[in-house]
Amino acid sequence: MIPEIEKASKKEIKAFQEEKLKETLQYLSKNSPFYKRFFKEKNIDISEIKTLENLQKIPVTTKDHLQQFNNDFICVPKSEIIDYVTTSGTLGDPVTFALTDNDLERLAYNEAISFGCCGVVKEDTLQLMTTMDRRFMAGLAYFLGARKIGSGIIRVGSGIPELQWDSILKFKPSYLITVPSFLLKLIEYAQQHEIDLKNTGVKAAICIGEPIREQDFSLNILAKKIKKDWDIELFSTYASTEMSTAFNECEMHHGGHHHPELIIAEILDDANLPVSNGEVGELTITTLGVEAMPLLRFKTGDMVKAYKTPCKCGRNAMRLGPVVGRKKQMIKYKGTTLYPPAMYNILNDFSVIESYVIEIFHNELGTDEILIKIASEAISEELLMEIKDHFRAKLRVAPKIEFASSEEIEALRFPPLSRKPVDLIDHRL
Description:
about 425 residues; alpha/beta; GMP Synthetase, Chain A, domain 3; 2 domains; about 30% helix; globular
């Protein structure tokens, strides 16, 4: 079921969001220690903010603000807080987020309509291949969303192909919620144990944490590898703890759908002004309907492109293209600008590469250096040259590459207390 506001005209969506924005500003000025101080210091008169365009009068909020003044963003007494989550800390120290009972209900609604984009209905069963513990919001959101729809959900957690297959064969889930690269491990296990991939009952995977599409929405190398052996539908999803909102693909696979009842989304340039249509910019969000820790013009650090034409699925709100990269993870290497997803794509093209991790650091001159550690049973100078040639052909530069054991790389990818695999270690941060 598509929420009515998402089928409304652009004009109606804008008017709806402007009313919600006024409510949010009033709430922040009354309840948020951080934003009360922020409005006073920046001489912001919230009564002048009446349209989405007026948002440009308000300075942006950054991850630095969240890290420095974490508790000042909380708008409710501690007795109203039901759950605490923390960000994964990909771009710095983790930040704690508090959620009230209403925030958990909003989170459930968000995930229910996001799953709805992917075709999930009450009759479906979902297998959850990510953790629900360690203060991780995503696993909790998936569980709450499935519960709201009425779908079954199997909480297997991450890793352990044998246990995943035991659950798939026993409970016959129709959807898997997983990091897409893990599907390759499931395929490998199935092939080794003569499990018929055509008769599993799985019809789709909702892919989290890693890109599965190119900027033109075609499947990337990782997704093509999966589809070659397991012909299930793949849905991309993008979300973050800070916005408590997800952008999921529908069956058209042409971008993640924006839920205008939950979030105001801007795509900004380096001067914090809206980019031109079709240009890449930084996703900046204002949460709607959040009680404990609402955010105003918060810069996510993710570089994206917006698509504003109506979707054939019937939704008229904007869509987000695949994340180009994280702004702080942008690499200037030998005069070329790179983002990690472009390197993942190249490495995933080599079936002999079992696992890898990319390390970014500054050299003695203060410029960016890249070191890629690769595990493979086919170690040779020829393979090394082939990988470097592939980098030169696709990105015009070849980083330093060295071979390592699978154990060394897995230790780097899964540090203590990690909740998801780490493919990039940025020592510059």
